[in-house]
Amino acid sequence: MLDLADVLAAQNTIKGQADHTPLVPSPFLSDKFGTDILLKLENMQPIGAFKLRGAINAVMNLPEGTKGVTCCSTGNHGRGVAFAAKLRGLRAVICMSELVPKAKVEGIQQLGGEVWVKGQSQDEAMAESRRLCAEEGLVEISPFDDPFVIAGQGTIGLEILSARPDLETLLVPLSGGGLAAGIALAAKAIKPDIQLIGISMDRGAAMAASIEAGHPVDVVEVPSLADSLGGGIGMDNKFSFALCRDLLDQTILVTEEEIYRAMQCLYYEDRIVAEGACVVGIAAMLAGKFKPNGPLATIITGRNLDMDLFTQIITGQNVQLGDYVIEGAKYVRP
Ligand SMILES: *Cc1c(COP(=O)(O)O)cnc(C)c1O
């Protein structure tokens, strides 16, 4: 099983490539809640998201003679894998369905990744990725259920606690759970009484539902402002589920409206452009679902969002998500 030593090894492996993002106070939130509220700015990573940490650690630990890597993430993990493979001079093939927007395809290509567009669904893209593993000897890198990926994401916990050992709580965005599992593993080994709280959107929170059920469950995936938190945890989950179940003190769910307001707040008060997935911790505090009672940090996980959508949000317009409409409103200081 994974432990602190794996996270420390990962810290060494990613050094100089994906480490030491700033940990900055939010003066507005700190003042509002009467305690230090810190933001770990993973949106400042070279690919615009923390996924680089896990991807570099996984790719660097592949055996000599590996032919290349593959995955079928359309988002930040795909970027991370392409970037990491380039560092090691390996081929990276990112498989996507025909439904994926062109901007995402170009984003991966700019990082030196090959994009294979195949089929009409994520499942077909996944099948293609599996075929490449079987027939061309590529290695698939999971976005969250891989010990090296989890240990890589855990380096965020080491950096936060070495800067601020007095923190009492970490609010961590939660999807497949690689991020939360890694951070919890590191933070609880260093400071056993620290509180680790996983936060997801209330529509399609696969890890929260799985912890509740006691085993991995499938949830219906619907569009969300926190699109980087969508998707399942895998019915055959081997690592991230057990770690999240055992190490998280609590999970909290937030609504699309709460995410919308928290994105406005982070933008207007701290001038930070961030994905919906990053602000779930702030959303939980502003909605009164989590009451800070001591210094805490939350992870601003990434900045790769559609700028037209972002403009709609900060100007207070309605946002259409599939058949769901978020009623817009201009920002009012909470
Ligand atoms: C992947 C991702 C997350 C969630 O990480 P998991 O390890 O899947 O829980 C959160 N925010 C952003 C921006 C991400 O890309």
From TrEMBL:
<dbReference type="GO" id="GO:0009097">
    <property type="term" value="P:isoleucine biosynthetic process"/>
</dbReference>
<dbReference type="GO" id="GO:0003941">
    <property type="term" value="F:L-serine ammonia-lyase activity"/>
</dbReference>
<dbReference type="GO" id="GO:0004794">
    <property type="term" value="F:threonine deaminase activity"/>
</dbReference>
<dbReference type="InterPro" id="IPR001926">
    <property type="entry name" value="TrpB-like_PALP"/>
</dbReference>
<comment type="similarity">
    <text>Belongs to the serine/threonine dehydratase family.</text>
</comment>
<keyword id="KW-0663">Pyridoxal phosphate</keyword>
<dbReference type="GO" id="GO:0006567">
    <property type="term" value="P:L-threonine catabolic process"/>
</dbReference>
<feature type="domain" description="Tryptophan synthase beta chain-like PALP">
    <location>
        <begin position="20"/>
        <end position="302"/>
    </location>
</feature>
<dbReference type="Pfam" id="PF00291">
    <property type="entry name" value="PALP"/>
</dbReference>
<dbReference type="InterPro" id="IPR036052">
    <property type="entry name" value="TrpB-like_PALP_sf"/>
</dbReference>
<dbReference type="InterPro" id="IPR014333">
    <property type="entry name" value="Ectoine_EutB"/>
</dbReference>
<dbReference type="GO" id="GO:0006565">
    <property type="term" value="P:L-serine catabolic process"/>
</dbReference>
<dbReference type="InterPro" id="IPR050147">
    <property type="entry name" value="Ser/Thr_Dehydratase"/>
</dbReference>
<protein>
    <submittedName>
        <fullName>Threonine dehydratase</fullName>
    </submittedName>
</protein>
<keyword id="KW-0456">Lyase</keyword>
